[in-house]
Recover the amino acids of this structure.
């Protein structure tokens, strides 16, 4: 049965040929194989494709859930053997072509309210079930005939605010009888909900962790990520030092670069001072800000980003500049706004 759900998805319960006819009839009235309804796909010039699904939000209202299918390519700046979208080294891919990464959502909207993020401007519109989370991955088999090489929980929502459903989804993704992903090829991103993240890491010690940093000081991070009032940068550093990643693994720190806000000389100096004690435990992804309608933040110049990269690299920290993928269809990091 699991094969019909995850490895070779079928269109109806009637196609579950390993089950008796009477059981298939009972199941057909009790479950749906497609918990999400695809309403639109939008393809950017760089090959990135945004999927827009219709789903029930709060109080039964219809809402739009987005996921993003991205062709892989080298990081803009960083080691050539590094995976493009997530900062995770993936052995065994040598010579393999047409790799893809899928960025999935865990909530409808988001309650964290990060000031630079289109999803945060929506507020929380509803929680996704484990089935709705997993179906974003399974549906790629139907659309493209292939599963992604890497799954990123970096779409709409804060995964730690839908903890039980996200844990159940990760169990299905990594179970050998279900989707069968290696744990290292699943990456969960959080804005900094450290208490639940610690519990998650104990349960899934090999799943990749990514945490939004986005500032060199608490003053600036408070303005960008409201959750910093509860879990500040000192708490973040303590958390990173308290966990023991598997050999070769690091915590990824995501840094959305905002012109004149967190790319100033004082912010860069503070950032390097914060990172030095964590060398060997973290890697940094510099993500040039992707424009969001009605937000006043500006994208940095390439020169500013390259200067940041060099300063951090010179301090002995692994650092990468990530490409802006999917801007043409508002599918880039921070642009998902639940629109078709």
């Amino acid at each position: 049965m699991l094969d019909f759900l995850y490895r070779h998805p079928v269109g109806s319960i009637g196609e579950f040929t390993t089950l008796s006819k009477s059981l298939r009839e009972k199941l057909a009235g009790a479950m749906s194989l497609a918990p999400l309804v695809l309403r639109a796909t939008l393809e950017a010039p760089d090959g990135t494709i945004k999927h827009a699904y219709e789903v029930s939000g709060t109080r039964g209202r219809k809402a739009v859930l987005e996921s993003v299918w991205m062709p892989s390519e080298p990081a803009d700046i960083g080691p050539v053997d590094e995976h493009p979208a997530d900062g995770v080294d993936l052995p065994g891919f040598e010579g393999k072509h047409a790799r893809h990464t899928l960025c999935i959502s865990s909530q409808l909207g988001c309650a964290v309210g990060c000031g630079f993020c289109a999803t945060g401007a929506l507020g929380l519109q509803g929680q996704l079930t484990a089935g709705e989370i997993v179906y974003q991955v399974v549906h790629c088999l139907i659309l493209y005939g292939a599963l992604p090489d890497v799954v990123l929980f970096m779409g709409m929502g804060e995964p730690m605010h839908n903890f039980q459903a996200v844990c159940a989804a990760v169990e299905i993704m990594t179970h050998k009888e279900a989707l069968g992903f290696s744990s290292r090829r699943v990456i969960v991103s959080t804005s900094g909900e450290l208490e639940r993240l610690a519990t998650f890491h104990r349960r899934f010690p090999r799943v990749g962790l990514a945490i939004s940093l986005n500032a060199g000081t608490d003053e600036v991070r408070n303005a960008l990520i409201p959750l910093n009032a509860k879990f500040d940068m000192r708490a973040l550093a303590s958390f990173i030092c308290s966990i023991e990643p598997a050999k070769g693994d690091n915590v990824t720190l995501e840094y959305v670069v905002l012109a004149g806000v967190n790319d100033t000389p004082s912010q860069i100096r503070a950032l390097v001072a914060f990172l030095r004690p964590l060398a060997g435990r973290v890697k940094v992804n510099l993500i040039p800000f992707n424009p969001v309608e009605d937000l006043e933040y500006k994208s940095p110049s390439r020169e500013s980003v390259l200067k940041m990269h060099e300063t951090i690299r010179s301090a002995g920290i692994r650092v990468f500049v990530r490409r802006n993928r999917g801007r043409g269809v508002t599918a880039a990091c921070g642009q998902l706004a639940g629109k078709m």
Confidence is low (pLDDT under 50) at residues 80-97. The first strand starts at residue 37 and ends at 43. The chain has two domains: 1-33, 34-329.
